[in-house]
Amino acid sequence: MAAAKKLRIEGGVTLLGAAPDADGLAEALAAAPALVCADGGANNLTTVPTAIIGDLDSLEDAAAWRDRLGAHLIHVEEQDSTDLEKCLRHVEAAFFICVGFHGGRLDHELAALHALVADPRPIVMIGAEDVVLSAGRGLELDLQPDDRFSVFPLRRVVAGRSRGLRWPLDGLVLEAGEKIGTSNMATGRVMLRFDRPGALLLLPRIRLDVALGGLLKRAA
């Protein structure tokens, strides 16, 4: 079977999952107007997305979508990755904003968070009260004093340096099941350095632009 095509999209891409979040979708599209749906994320749309990608097991009326999208309805049959991972693998873009991957099944949500750490590109995920991004090996964020700031390691990481946090992380070994770094507070601009990728950062949802700016600066 021929490999599914890879889409190359200028600028940012909004990736839409199945959990409803109309406000989050509007926020994401304002910054990343190209819309790509992960399988059943297209079921409640009233507009036509750029593409739908996935194993198509939850997409309603796939035949009608194929008539609309043609080759941009991308069927990826393998079951070794999630629909979000399939989207990320088959789309090239400057950055991604993920919406609709929180608030549904917990196993889907955990898998989506894993995808953030596994992919080195600039990706932000919007939740009900948070934005989530990969810390990578470090980045700088233009936060405001008293902004909530959490670090959650999905694997063992060592914080080399930190600046702009009420409770510094310098030298701490963070590892799930051992020590985590949630519910910290920014004192202003935050700088972090880690020995390797593996941690997630959680910020207030109103700091979407800050999260995206920090990721794009790191990628430049």
What does this structure look like?
This protein is of the alpha/beta class and 220 residues long. The chain folds into two domains: 11-128, Rossmann fold; 138-204, Thiamin pyrophosphokinase, thiamin-binding domain (Jelly Rolls), CATH 2.60.120. Helices cover 23% and strands 35% of the residues. The protein has helices at residues 22-31, 62-69, 83-90, 106-118, 208-219, and strands at residues 7-8, 12-16, 34-38, 51-54, 73-75, 91-92, 95-99, 123-126, 130-134, 138-141, 148-153, 157-165, 173-174, 181-194, 199-204. The strands form two sheets. Strands 2, 3, 4, 5, 7, 8, 9, 10, 11, 12, 13, 14 and 15 form a 13-stranded mixed beta sheet that branches. A hairpin with a 3-residue loop joins β8 (123-126) and β9. It is elongated. The model has no long low-confidence stretch (mean pLDDT 93). Residues 148-197 form the Thiamin pyrophosphokinase thiamin-binding domain. This is Thiamine diphosphokinase.
